[in-house]
Design goal:
Helix content is 36%, strand content 21%. The chain is of the alpha/beta class and 173 residues long. It has six helices and five strands. 32% of the residues are buried.
């Protein structure tokens, strides 16, 4: 299975990065192919709501930025992993820009191979996930009708037990 991980953390060695690394280790053990795109290191602008993609663009976004890398990866993706620290009850702004730009790639229909999704979220507080979960459920489980492969959350510092749980879950996909 081809797995695309969208890393929405600006911290290269932070909790989100550690959780992603554990996920990739488990997925690799199971023979899956993981591609990670750190969206914070890309130049990806927010959606312009210009409707070009649904008119003259025939599904192509008018903006010429690094989002094309995500669009290309989505074509071969069976499973999507959204990974982000939680800021103000939601995912990072960088990842939110990417998800908003799914508008051209997922309408009127999602990419053909894309069937599954999971989320990796970390926060300093155990009660900060509701905004991110609302988007996850609405955008990915309901609208795109993707199979839910789990939501992994860690609040505070990531420890070895957390990482082992994520690795095990990924190895069982």
């Amino acid at each position: 299975m081809n797995i695309l991980i969208l890393n929405g953390s600006p911290r290269p060695k932070g909790n989100t990065a550690q959780m992603i690394s554990a996920f990739i280790s488990g997925a690799d053990e199971a023979g899956h192919i993981c591609t990670e795109i750190n969206v914070c290191r890309k130049s990806i602008r927010g959606c312009l709501a210009c409707e070009y993609c649904h008119t003259k663009g025939n599904g192509q976004c008018i903006q010429k930025d690094d989002m094309h890398e995500v669009y290309e990866a989505l074509k071969e993706t069976d499973m999507l992993v959204l990974a982000s620290p939680i800021y103000y009850h939601g995912i990072s702004g960088q990842l939110k820009c990417v998800i908003d730009r799914f508008y051209s790639a997922a309408y009127p229909k999602k990419p053909e191979k894309l069937k599954k999704v999971c989320a990796i979220y970390c926060s300093g507080d155990p009660d900060m996930y509701e905004g991110a979960l609302f988007s996850y459920r609405g955008d990915f489980l309901e609208y795109l009708e993707l199979e839910d492969c789990g939501v992994f959350t860690v609040h505070g510092d990531v420890d070895e037990v957390d990482l082992l749980k994520i690795r095990k879950a990924a190895s069982e996909l």
